[in-house]
Design goal:
This protein is an alpha/beta fold and 233 residues long. Helices cover 55% and strands 11% of the residues. The two termini are 21 Å apart.
Length: 233
């Protein structure tokens, strides 16, 4: 069973850096009066970083989360550029230190940011495959999780279950228990990160249609769903 992705601390680190830079811009050096607006602005920016992380948790796909984080990085960078481009602020060690801390936070955020081009892990949902082809698929890709419906499990399938985490769904085509495990609720329970995977569906037409309905209810993007014939898997 796949594990859920951990929260990305990059946006929080980034917005903490933006807060420090903003504080340095509003309060440029020692000997200047301590302004409540500086504290309020810094607190709001840190809070915005936390909100960015929490909001990303409610998005279904990794692409959507990446867009939200990148949008936050761009907004923060523009904010810092706007503050420090003004000639009204006094230059000094405090301002230079703020910029250095902001740059460090930006680097940390980018380093912790998931690369958008990284291939997605794969989920195979199938029935009626040759066990040898299923074994080859599981042994050839360590990031592949397979859900396989079979009326009665064989010793070879039990071996794949033990060695490669094959999720066996035992039951006939119209067995209510088997259909429940292949439903939207059943698949989300077995594969919590299903919306972040490329999903390959192989089997008879009725099987594909049923699984397609479940994936649609789980809001898996169509671009991530691939229907294959049993021979091509």
């Amino acid at each position: 069973m796949a594990s859920e992705a951990k929260a990305n601390p990059g946006p929080v680190l980034f917005w903490c850096g933006v807060a420090v830079a903003e504080f340095g811009a509003i309060q440029p050096g020692f000997g200047y009066p301590w302004r409540p607006t500086a504290y309020a602005a810094a607190a709001l920016l840190v809070a915005l970083g936390f909100v960015t992380v929490k909001a990303a948790d409610y998005l279904r796909t990794e692409e959507a989360r990446q867009r939200l984080r990148l949008g936050g990085y761009l907004a923060g960078a523009l904010l810092v550029a706007h503050e420090f481009s003004s000639t009204a602020y006094v230059t000094g060690l405090s301002r230079a230190g703020s910029l250095i801390l902001y740059a460090m936070a930006a680097v940390m955020a980018v380093r912790s940011h998931h690369v958008a081009g990284t291939p997605r892990p794969t989920l195979l949902i199938a029935t009626g495959l040759d066990p040898a082809a299923l074994r080859a698929r599981l042994e050839g890709a360590s990031d592949t999780v397979a859900v396989y419906r079979i009326e009665r499990a064989t010793d070879e399938l039990r071996d794949l279950e033990a060695r490669h985490g094959l999720i066996l769904v035992e039951g006939a085509e119209h067995d209510p228990r088997a259909k429940e495990r292949l439903s939207a609720s059943g698949l989300s329970r077995e594969i919590p990160d299903i919306a972040e995977r490329d999903v390959v569906v192989a089997g008879p037409r009725q099987f594909k249609r049923y699984v397609r309905g479940a994936l649609s209810r789980l809001a898996v993007p169509r671009s991530q769903i691939h229907f294959k014939s049993r021979q091509k898997v």
